[in-house]
From TrEMBL:
This is CUB domain-containing protein. InterPro entries: CUB_dom, SCUB_EGF-like_domain, Sperma_CUB_dom_sf, Tyr-kin_ephrin_A/B_rcpt-like. GO terms for biological process: signal transduction. Residues 104-216 form the CUB domain. Keywords: Disulfide bond. It comes from the Eukaryota. GO terms for cellular component: cell surface; extracellular space. PANTHER family: CUB DOMAIN-CONTAINING PROTEIN, SIGNAL PEPTIDE, CUB AND EGF-LIKE DOMAIN-CONTAINING.
């Protein structure tokens, strides 16, 4: 009632939460031995249900939590719903971490964006398909940067990402893999537009990916290829960290989108990027614009 003192729940009832005005009955004649019970587990049910299950007071038997719900504790009479638009991969979930966002991640700015597997940086769901299309403005090409890919590796190749010109399997392919990659890679798309598909068909999942891309003026094609095809770009841990640090990677994408601004940007970037990275890029950019 909101008045002190608070009353203990009587035998045959319980209350797991603070500040309530009533107690929850055990149901169907079930009893608890003592007053003040805080969980259904104190009710004398015919069996104690494991995590991922709940005690059905109508049938007096354990039932599995349906998809979209979970139960982390033993001996409970309900399953907890997944928050928002999330869903579990299977029935019998035991943790809120089993609730996954199945929406395909995408962010797109003026000249660069990011593609993410569903639920990233959490584990992606099973049995999901994502399709993205990148169509740059006229006279612009596409550069894709893959910091890392985390898949469930196996002989069956259940999870896969494909990048090619169009949906047709016969169209020009720029990238395809069904295995994890720890080392970063950057490449220019072989076609002027990209069709990207991610599929997960296995029973196990992994973290997936967050893949940035940038569009640049096709007049800079030779400069961009000179940069991304240089093995020194990926050869040191300091350089690899650039691809894994979102702030540095965003700065790199801005430079690639408008390479002419690099010479103005380089004074500031000396405090951000490793000296070896600046030493690698500067002569390439200067040589290109002095031609």
């Amino acid at each position: 009632s909101g008045q002190k003192p608070c009353q203990a729940c009587g035998p045959g009832s319980f209350q797991p939460f603070f500040g309530r005005k009533s107690c929850v009955p055990c149901g169907s004649g079930l009893r608890s031995d003592t007053a003040g019970s805080s969980s259904f587990a104190d009710c004398k049910a015919r069996e104690t249900c494991e995590a991922g299950h709940f005690y059905n007071t109508s049938t007096h038997a354990c039932s599995v939590c349906e998809r979209g719900s979970y139960q982390p504790d033993r001996g409970q009479d309900i399953c907890l719903p997944c928050p928002g638009e999330t869903m579990t991969d299977f029935s019998g979930a035991t943790s809120p971490d089993d609730c996954k966002d199945r929406r395909c991640g995408r962010f797109m700015g003026d000249h660069y964006g990011v593609l993410e597997s569903p639920n990233y940086p959490g584990l992606y769901p099973v049995d999901v398909t994502c399709v993205w299309r990148i169509r740059p403005q006229k006279k612009r090409r596409i550069l894709v940067i893959i910091p890392r890919i985390d898949f469930v590796d196996g002989e069956t190749c259940d999870d896969r990402i494909v990048m090619r010109k169009s949906k047709s399997a016969n169209s020009q392919s720029s990238f395809e893999t069904c295995t994890s990659r720890d080392r970063p890679i950057a490449f220019t798309a072989l076609s002027k537009k990209l069709w990207i598909e991610f599929t997960s068909n296995g029973n196990r999942t992994a973290r997936g990916f967050s893949i940035p891309f940038v569009t640049y003026n096709e007049d800079y094609q030779s400069l961009i290829e000179d940069i991304v095809q240089d093995r020194r770009l990926y050869s040191t841990k300091q350089h690899q960290m650039i691809f894994q640090d979102r702030q540095l990677l965003t700065a790199l994408l801005e430079v690639i989108a408008t390479p002419y601004n690099y010479l103005k940007y380089v004074n500031v970037s000396h405090t951000m990027f490793p000296p070896s990275f600046i030493k690698l890029l500067t002569p390439k950019v200067r040589r290109f614009f002095e031609m």
